[in-house]
Amino acid sequence: MIAALRGRRLEFGPGVTFLVGENGSGKSTLVEALAVAAGLNPEGGSRHFRFATRSTESVLGEALTVSRAPGRERSSFFLRAETYYNVASEIESRGIELEPYGGVSPHERSHGQSFLDLLTHRFRPQGLYLLDEPEAALSTQGQLAALARIQELTRAGSQFLIATHSPILTALPGARILQIDPDGGLHTVAYDDCLPVRTTRDFLADPTRTLRHLR
């Protein structure tokens, strides 16, 4: 996927862009690289978070140039599901004001509750938000709540780039879905044609048939 981006210009319009693809396709790598290029901490957080539990980010972020339309966002945040525990620890260790996180340390809430607290209290209108597989901590109801909040923030001028496997999140009306194919190709697909939706529908239509292929 990285090789396919060489010399290419990617434009992300206002609202929400989803990145979908199989594990290892590079969608999380791309979101991480864009976060780094935009000045955000590779493990997550805002521009004011500068910590590293273990530096594993790719060099792609150093090779990307991010340009914005006139008018800078009022808020920004990189939510990386696998390292949000580290962000929560940083919030506690630095004594950061907890009101933007629901009034309590994220460690005092379940993983899913802390994600929803972040969306509800920390994410604000006219912001730039990059999310890497936020559904990892969310129940079905949690994903629906996240979907409603993302739509609300989008209508208030926020921009989102979200790497996901969720057929629920990708159902957001008006969102653009970019799919990364096994050969590294990157193209826009309709909701009904994107990988998470097709795979889930095939399974739900006939679970027994799908499970036979796993034997």
From TrEMBL:
SMART domains: AAA (SM00382)
Domain of life per record: Bacteria
Keyword list, A-Z: Cell membrane, Ion transport, Iron, Iron transport, Membrane, Transport
Cellular compartment(s): Cell membrane
Transmembrane segments: none
Domain AAA+ ATPase: residue ranges: 13-184
Primary localization class, coarse: membrane
Membrane topology: Peripheral membrane protein
Pfam families, A to Z: AAA_21, AAA_23
InterPro entries in the record: AAA+_ATPase, ATPase_AAA_core, P-loop_NTPase, Rad50/SbcC_AAA, Siderophore_ABC-ATPase
Keyword Ion transport: yes
Name listed for the protein in its UniProt record: AAA family ATPase
Organism whose genome encodes this protein: Pseudonocardia xishanensis
